[in-house]
Amino acid sequence: MKTFCGRANPTTGAMEWLEEDENYDYHQEIARSRYADMLHDKDRNVKYYQGIRAAVSRVKERGEKAIVLDIGTGTGLLSMMAASAGADFCYAIEVFKPMANAAVKIVEKNGFHDKIKVINKHSTEVTVGPDGDMQCRANILITELFDTELIGEGALPTYEHAHKYLVQEGCEAVPHRATVYVQLVESKRMWSWNKLFPVHVEADDGEKIIVSPSEMENCPGVPSVCDIQLNQMPSSDFTILSDVVTMFSVDFSKPVRSASTYYKVQLEPVKSGKAQIVLSWWDIDMDPSGMINCTMAPYWVKSTSAFQWRDHWMQCVYFLPNEEPVLQGEKVYLTACRDEYSVWYKLQKARGEEENKADVHVESPVCRCQAHLLWNRPRFGELNDENRTRQYITSLMKVLKTDSVCLCISDGSLLPVLAHYLGAKQFFKANHLEDKIKIIEARPESLTSSHLEDKKISVLVGEPFFTTSLLPWHNLYFWYARTAVTSHLTSNVTVLPQSASLHMMIVEFQDLWRIRSPCGTCEGFDVQTMDDMIKNSLNFRESKEAEPHPLWEYPCKSLSDPQEVLTFDFRKTVPQHCLSTEGSINLLRKGKSHGAVLWMEYHLAADISISTGLMQISNEKGNCEWNPHCKQAVYFFSSVIESEAVSGLPSAVTYAINFNTKTGEIAMDFKLL
Ligand code: SAH
């Protein structure tokens, strides 16, 4: 059987439906899943185990049989913990078939098949009774259904249903409770992910300021959560305006209501400033006493030195609908609204007024200006990057003449506006988004002379940036588009950027390697079946693929110098033949070569280049600084990740890289020498 998967074609920029093996989706799901990261989360595992032991003991002390319901068992880990802790029987529910199958194998291998029944169903489909999936209701409820936002994976409706139909009244729940914390901050950096700041253009006839329209200024944005590794945000990038306060908590041992609601807290600003952002995270208490606590608190809040890195639970950044000036000591009210799956925030200045239900709108925010639909948060950040804008302005000034006829090919780009302010008279913009700027609703390959009012293009510009790009080289679509419009270009056309280059560096990650590293045993349970399954899924495609990661969130150190491996000349058309390169790269520092990082650099003018990857290597230790708006490509070396101790450090890495001009994809292979 075949299935169809939607994917953007990097040579046309268009979405295409590709026929894939029926297992493709599931292999992708397994290979890119967070299961490995969870199994490596020692802090989480240890605390679950403690909480489970305590819950089983409490039930036993009451003289009852311990009957466990584990919703979303994954590898079966939490059920095996319960069985080891003395539970009489566990019902392990898992909706994802490949995982349910893996759980059966893992449970069997660890010798718990008589104590654990794996049920491949969504928990809301589970039946209870003599002929049901479960013989009787459970008195211990164990789950790990949380995402960074706590409720985004549907924990609330799942708990609501479980309390109604699957567990006894007064059941013990592990975790026992979850608490959501918030802190109000001002941060130009984070606010730049949500609003377009005025753009200053230094033109020959004076400074001009591009401002965003008022509907954009007042737009509440999109409700999707912004989850980041907040621990990578330096304290110099935000100003704390309030103490950390508890926003709401959920007691999982009691009936849970998933219906939309809101919570309101009073805040007394500790500093005057502009309230823009609500930072939020949660913790879970594994037992009622609160002695076994697992927290996502960021570095400036957490006192413990025992810091656990994890990627499956991070921290949330919420954007207030508008920035609000607040004064130190002058109370404000922060409201968290939530529906079944997401949370959003509002700030009110009402001083001790009657808390009127009617004034709380629980509707989730909807973008009215379109910009939040066109630009995601990193893209907002990129467009607000003044340094980057300056480089484009300087480059544009070098190439634009008053009689230039310009065409811009990039998604949601400000280049036409910049060029217009710089004095370009004629500007065409293909694909998206004024009277000096003409937007052409046509794909580059179907561009006609009439679209261009029979003019030839003398300046072709692009950032380039396309929303469909997943990996750095997918923005080479610009080259394909440039090739498609060749007949409309003057013979001495200026293309900006004139070329691009692919760069590569070998790195040692501080933590990111964990997400692809096998686990072996977890808290004494053999979970190798899961490792094998992930490996098998990673090898499902003959060549392993590079994967996109925003590396500013994932510290690493360079083990080699950065190396330019391929160049792409935009002044010429895309060649028919593939572009390949082979070579070796010397390792200059000691460390574990976890993988190669690849990124693109765009050459706007002879002396102006934009890097979408490495910004600089900041010290002699090799710590890297990455472009904060872009994702880089990471290719993990499985041999290093899989071996505990690397005996005899490699001194060089050989590589073979091939850019297939037909597909727009890059295949690569590495060997450690
Ligand atoms: N319990 C495991 C895995 C947690 S990941 C561990 O702690 O290591 C969460 C798992 O729950 C996923 O495998 C997902 O497929 C499953 N899941 C989520 N909601 C579910 C539901 N309502 N019913 C059954 N499975 C669910």
Provide key terms for this protein.
seven-stranded antiparallel β-sheet; 673 residues; 34% strand; binds S-adenosyl-L-homocysteine
Question: What can you tell me about this protein's structure?
Answer:
19% of the residues lie in helices and 34% in strands. It has 673 residues and is α+β, with helices and mostly antiparallel strands. The radius of gyration is 28 Å and the shape is globular. The model has no long low-confidence stretch (mean pLDDT 91). S-adenosyl-L-homocysteine binds at residues 38, 71-75, 77-78, 93-96, 99, 122-123, 144-145, 154, 158.
Offer a concise description of the structure.
The protein has 673 residues and is α+β, with helices and mostly antiparallel strands. The longest helix has 20 residues, at 42-61.
CA radius of gyration: 28 Å
Structural class: alpha+beta
Net shape:
globular
DSSP summary, beta strand count: 38
Small molecules in complex: S-adenosyl-L-homocysteine
Describe the secondary-structure layout.
Layout: E1 2-8, E2 15-21, H1 24-31, H2 35-39, H3 42-61, E3 67-71, H4 77-84, E4 89-93, H5 97-109, E5 116-119, E6 138-143, H6 155-165, E7 167-174, E8 177-186, H7 188-191, E9 199-203, E10 206-210, H8 214-217, E11 226-228, E12 239-240, E13 245-251, E14 261-267, E15 273-285, E16 293-295, E17 315-326, E18 332-338, E19 343-348, H9 371-374, H10 377-383, H11 386-399, E20 405-408, H12 415-421, E21 426-430, E22 437-440, E23 457-461, H13 477-484, E24 489-496, E25 499-509, E26 521-522, E27 525-526, H14 528-538, E28 547-549, E29 556-558, E30 563-569, E31 579-586, E32 595-605, E33 608-611, E34 614-617, E35 624-626, E36 632-636, H15 638-642, E37 652-660, E38 665-672
Helix pairs in contact: 1-14
Bound molecules: S-adenosyl-L-homocysteine.
